[in-house]
Amino acid sequence: MRAELSTIGFEEFRTSEQVASHLGPNHKGTTLVVVNSVCGCAAGAARPGIKYAVENAKIKPGTLATVFAGNDREAVDKLRELSLPYPPSSPAMALFKDGELVHFVERHHIEGRNAKMIGEHLVEVFEHFCE
User: Fold this and answer.
1) What's the rounded Cα separation, in Å, for the pair 62 and 102?
2) Four-CA torsion 117, 57, 103, 83, nearest 10 degrees
């Protein structure tokens, strides 16, 4: 489950320090952070949708990162803090630009959608926010 994202270029943030250091006040550019999980919608739609987006987008975030719910507790908690006012959600996808959360995909936006729908949505988000 981890390898599905790391093999396509996602960096794993496993501690709160890694998340805070990367997304701190001096963060420049765009970063997509995926809250990965073991649930069926992560396996069937979220991760394949993310892969579709990364492979098909002409414009992508400068950094692709992931935290794993239930495993990287500190990192997930820090990301959730930075993603307020959105409630905890896994899987989820958070796009940051210059230190500000600019787009968030919650679990309920993933459930009931197929990978291509999620991927196409992310491609549009990347085109809107990434340079």
Assistant:
1) 14
2) 100
Among 6, 11, 20, 39, the active-site one is: 39
* Residue 82 tokens, joined: 């930075």
Are 35 and 76 in contact, with CB atoms under 8 Å apart? yes
The four Cα atoms 57, 5, 95, 30 give a dihedral, to 10 degrees, of -70
Residue of 33, 41, 67, 118 marked catalytic: 41
Prediction pTM value:
0.94
Q: What is the pLDDT of residues 93-117, one digit of tens each?
A: 999 999 899 999 999 999 989 999 9
User: Residue 48: which residues within 8 A CB-CB, separation 6 or more?
Assistant: 115, 118, 119
130 in active site: no
| Strand intervals (E) in the chain | 11-12, 30-36, 63-68, 92-97, 100-105
* 2-129 placed in CATH 3.40.50.720: no
